[in-house]
Amino acid sequence: MSYSGKIVWVTGASSGIGEALAKAFSDQGASVILSGRRVGALDDVARACRGDTLELPFEATDYDALPGIVAQAEGWKGRIDVLVNNAGISQRSLGKDTKFEVYRELMEVDFFAPLRLTQLVLPAMLARGEGHFINIASVAGKIGGVLRTGYSAAKHALIGYSDALRAENEYAGLKVTVVTPGFVRTNIATHARSGDGSERGRSDEDIDSGISPDEAALMILAGIAAGKREIPVARGAIAEALKLKSIDPERLFDVMAAQGAMMAARE
């Protein structure tokens, strides 16, 4: 599989899945635009990439700045072939303990920010009759679990938007791929929001024992090469839970409810 000559833009490229995807696309011959908030980390990723890179740091929810950011990205090589909407934050708090402002932040970062960036990149892709959006959602966008009411809501929204966007535009040459990672060894749990909006500051055992970002990137590229519109990036129990959601959702709801009861018993 080769992306030689392709221009790929990756948000959230400073670490985790975004970093791994940026390197993987670069290895396949792409010129890669690296976006995130941490300039020093983007510098490190750029040095690790084999091909041309453009560092384009920005805040995902700075909507007033986004048109200019998109103009810079499109002006670098004349177009964007692939946009990977990967930037995001997670949550670790019970719904009853979560401030409304935290829900708003989760929706802004995980749903409205990728939606707005997609809106701005979409017209040029449609005018050319080709383009590819890769939206990094989550298993939480398919399964609602404890401590993730806001995160799950935002990722469900992203999946719904992606599926509808694909339905509207696939005939015109536009590709939309949804990726649903499960447990991947990133800092997502450490940086997750607590109920009061503060950063959690510690990881999860499930995250720490999960798939590596590099392996996740390879699974994503393999899914894209196979033409899959939705790519699960999960193994073990979480992969089985995804299957259960399709074949026996009531059973899955029972499993999730049991987890909620266990957590309540520990309080």
Automatic annotation (TrEMBL):
SUPFAM superfamilies: NAD(P)-binding Rossmann-fold domains (SSF51735). Residues 6-187 form the Ketoreductase domain. GO terms for molecular function: oxidoreductase activity. Gene3D superfamilies: NAD(P)-binding Rossmann-like Domain. Residues 191-210 are annotated as: Disordered. GO terms for cellular component: membrane. The keyword Oxidoreductase applies. Keywords: Oxidoreductase. Belongs to the short-chain dehydrogenases/reductases (SDR) family. This is SDR family NAD(P)-dependent oxidoreductase.
